[in-house]
Write a structure and sequence with these properties.
Distance between the termini: 30 Å
Structural class: alpha+beta
Low-confidence stretches: 117-162, 253-258
Largest sheet: 8 strands, mixed
Radius of gyration: 28 Å
Mean pLDDT: 88
Membrane topology: Peripheral membrane protein
Family: Belongs to the SEC23/SEC24 family. SEC23 subfamily.
GO molecular function: GTPase activator activity; zinc ion binding
Number of strands: 35
GO biological process, one term: COPII-coated vesicle cargo loading
Number of helices: 22
Keywords: Cytoplasm, Cytoplasmic vesicle, Endoplasmic reticulum, ER-Golgi transport, Golgi apparatus, Membrane, Metal-binding, Protein transport, Transport, Zinc
């Protein structure tokens, strides 16, 4: 079974592609029944339908290829609840040779866009939505072109409810150290402003010990509203200080006058660019003290501004900072440099004086962000910590973006900002806001919850399980922002009634509603089917996706680290792995040498071995900010990226031929080869000692040694491709064998040869007390055969 091909069709990766009919058997699988869902995955061919979907009157499922259709009676039967639903009048021409695209077998995913202009508009698009089996592709193309963004009402087009926006509030740290850093940030912001669509609304906030909100509509001079950085303001108080008064009319709250703190870029571009260019560093901090920086207050004021202006769709607060908050709500350290910023040891021992209070403050902000559909992004460029660990909750739950870098002048920062503000061929930003994901299941499938950048809306129905995993207790989740790579892990369990019959199919439908970059509403529907199988059926093992399972277990392990110590999480992972191998291994009891795992299970123990040693669980040599960033990225990445994070890739370049993958083992290091190591967050080009020596002598510049030049060039070209495809861009490290920078590679390799091993002179060894993969597997086999 090719799981990559299935993902290319559905945008889904299932840990188990065949589910047992009994709840007890499903629980014994150890790896939970779960689906890694990329709701806005990119497909080679995605039909975009310019009419509204047909919805089941009983379970709210949407018409899909698995629905049974009675063409004579014009009735379709819902595969989820078996409700008989009539087709509307606009479907009078439906027939076996004239079917709507959503019924075509190859389209398990379709996307709807509609202008909500009533039945006449639906009837107008009816012909485009229906296709015959012989002309499907051409009909879909004509449907897409006929409802292009330019042709829809209002000129903005592209979906339901096209409106003004999106909204961006730039929150800039006024305590940047060095003119170069400030100049780099200014240039990046000015470049972003120049690329914004004219309908985008913008605001500017600058903070140091005070928070200054710019009045972009005042042209005589720079006028700002100043807030004290040590005070925590409620939404009502911020509204009062901004002078934005509201009144209720017919049950709706609306501003009674136009405000000038948020304006369309077409009206304030000159004022905004002038204000950005006028930003200057605040007065230098006292010697031996950190600058007074009120990051938490600035974010709170920015949220209050959007709340006061009743901006509840398509808005982002983008924070650019270069240091920790030292005053006001959300502070993580005081201004005295003699007091170090909290470490993991401080967090474990309860010696981080401000940590719990700051986390509580940002949790409140997270709730406000969710309620108002506001996204919080954090761009931190500093050699020290900035408080990303405390800010992780509001950034992740709102669907925001986080980048930790060294400098605002770096290519990494510029590329990240450029990627976020990329536009499509119609000039619309490639951003999707205010998304919700609803799951509809057949009766015997229960929904436990989700892990990822989403928030439970606590909407229960009969398909919601009493058991909660992550964001549970619902069948609908909210995402402040979503990209084509955002991935959510959904968890399920088999119902208690056990009425499913082996061999019968069950269905799960994902309905994603989101606001497109042009602020039009769209709805994407993915319907997937799998089969129930009998308990102990060999089809269960055949349908196991070990890469998806590793990704899911990594997210579960991260969740455990938030409430347990790392050693307890490792113990939990070991316990789960032993149970798993005991169930699916082939062995003679009490005989470890007889233990075998089939090919579709063989990599899973390796994934768990490297997960135990990864920076997600073993936080040694990582700051709390770095750990928060690593975990946030894993929680939103798809299966392919997650697997690279857990089990990095290692390629060998030599004179013998093209690059080849090699074992992630210290034995792969050799003096006459180049290694390319990819751990997702950083990429290492490791030159063997002989290669490094030849490079230093400049042999590659000699025409007689063209092969050496080609060998040195090959990994550089591959690294460029990796950096171009990944955001944030990974850190690139070039090092020679036995150099200090080689530690980035050695720390991730399997220590098969250590100072305690027997090794030949000149061979590479790793000084560590960690057990090797082979020792780990040997112990695993001994424990598995006992059960």
């Amino acid at each position: 079974m090719d799981f990559d091909e299935l993902e290319a069709i559905e945008g889904l990766r299932w840990t188990w592609n065949s589910w047992p009919v009994s709840k007890s058997e499903a629980s014994s699988l150890t790896v939970p029944l779960s689906i890694m869902c990329t709701p806005l995955a990119q497909f080679n061919e995605l039909p975009i339908l310019a009419y509204d979907p047909l919805i089941c009157t009983h379970c709210n499922a949407i018409l899909n290829p698995y629905s049974r259709v009675d063409y004579q009676s014009r009735i379709w039967v819902c595969p989820f609840c078996h409700q008989r639903n009539p087709f509307p009048r606009t479907y009078t021409a439906i027939g076996e040779n004239n079917i709507p695209a959503e019924l075509f077998p190859t389209y398990s995913t379709v996307e709807y866009q509609s202008s909500h202009k009533g039945a006449s508009n639906l009837g107008h698009n009816w012909g485009n939505g229906f296709v015959s089996s012989g002309s499907l592709a051409s009909s879909i193309r004509s449907s897409t072109s006929s409802c292009s963004l330019a042709s829809l009402g209002g000129g903005g087009g592209g979906g339901m409810g096209v409106g003004v926006g999106p909204v961006f509030v730039f929150v800039v740290d006024g305590c940047l150290e060095g003119e170069e850093e400030l100049r780099g940030l200014k240039n990046a912001l000015l470049h972003v402003v120049a690329r914004l669509p004219e309908s985008a609304l913008v605001g500017l906030v600058v903070f140091d010990s005070m928070v200054r909100v710019y009045d972009l509509g005042f042209t005589e001079c720079f006028r700002v509203v100043v807030f004290h950085g040590e005070r925590e303001l409620s939404s009502d108080k911020a509204q009062q200080l901004f002078g934005i008064h509201q009144t209720r009319q017919l049950g709706k709250t609306q501003p009674i006058r136009k405000h000038s703190f948020l304006l369309p870029i077409s009206e304030c571009e000159y004022n905004l660019t002038s204000a950005i260019e006028d930003i200057f560093p605040s007065s230098l901090a006292i010697s031996g003290h950190r600058p007074q920086r009120c990051t938490g207050a600035a974010i709170s004021v920015s949220i209050g501004l959007l709340e006061a202006c009743l901006v509840t769709t398509g808005s982002r607060i983008m924070v650019f900072t270069s240091g920790p908050a030292t005053i006001g709500p959300g502070m993580i350290v005081n201004t005295d440099r003699g007091d170090a910023i909290r470490t993991h040891r401080d967090l474990e021992n309860g010696n981080a004086a401000y940590y719990r209070k700051s986390c509580g403050f940002y949790k409140q902000l997270s709730d406000r962000l969710c309620n108002s559909s506001i996204v919080l992004d954090l761009f931190a460029c500093s050699l020290d910590q900035v408080g990303a660990a405390e800010l992780r909750t509001p950034v992740e739950s709102s669907g925001g973006f986080m980048m930790l870098g060294d400098s605002f002048e770096s290519d990494q920062f510029r590329k990240c900002l450029q990627h976020i503000f990329n536009c499509d061929e119609n000039g619309n930003l490639k951003m999707c806001f205010e998304a919700t994901i609803e799951i509809v299941t057949t009766k015997d499938v229960k929904i436990c919850g989700a892990l990822g950048p989403c928030v439970s809306l606590r909407k229960k129905n009969s398909s919601v399980s009493e058991k909660e995993i992550g964001e549970g207790g619902t069948n609908v989740w909210k995402l402040g922002a979503v990209t084509s790579k955002t991935c959510i892990a959904f968890f399920f369990q088999v119902g208690n009634e056990q009425k499913a019959q082996p061999g019968s199919a069950f269905f799960i439908q994902f309905i994603t509603r989101y606001r497109h970059g042009n602020m039009g509403l769209r709805k994407r529907v993915t319907t997937a089917a799998r089969r129930w199988v009998a308990n102990q059926s060999p089809e269960i093992a055949a349908g196991f996706d070990q890469e998806a399972a590793a990704s899911v277990m990594a997210r579960l392990a991260i969740r455990e680290t938030e409430r347990s110590y790392a050693r307890e999480v490792i113990r939990w992972l070991d316990k789960m792995l032993i149970r798993f191998c005991s169930k699916f291994g082939d062995y003679v009891p009490e005989d470890p040498s007889s233990f075998r795992l089939s090919s579709n299970f063989s990599l899973y123990p390796q994934f768990m071995y490297y997960l135990r040693r990864s920076q997600f669980i073993d936080v040694f040599n990582s700051s709390p900010d770095e750990t928060a960033f690593f975990r946030l990225m894993l929680n939103r990445e798809g299966v392919v990226g997650s697997v690279v994070m857990i089990l990095p890739t290692l390629f060998q370049y030599s004179f013998d031929g093209p690059p080849i993958p090699v074992l992630l083992d210290v034995c792969s290091i050799s003096p006459d080869v180049i290694l390319l190591f990819d751990s997702y967050f950083y990429v290492v080009i490791h030159y063997g000692s002989k290669i490094a020596q030849w490079r230093k002598l400049g042999y590659e510049r000699d025409p007689n040694h063209e092969s050496l030049w080609r060998l040195l060039e090959a990994p550089e070209l591959d690294v460029e491709q990796l950096v171009a495809e990944r955001v944030p861009a990974p850190k690139i490290i070039r090092c020679d064998q036995h150099s200090s920078q080689a530690r980035f590679l050695l720390a991730k390799l399997n220590p098969s040869v250590t100072q305690k091993s027997t090794y030949a002179d000149g061979s590479e060894i790793i000084f560590t007390d960690d057990v090797s993969l082979q020792v780990f597997i040997d112990h695993l086999q001994e424990l598995a055969v006992q059960g």
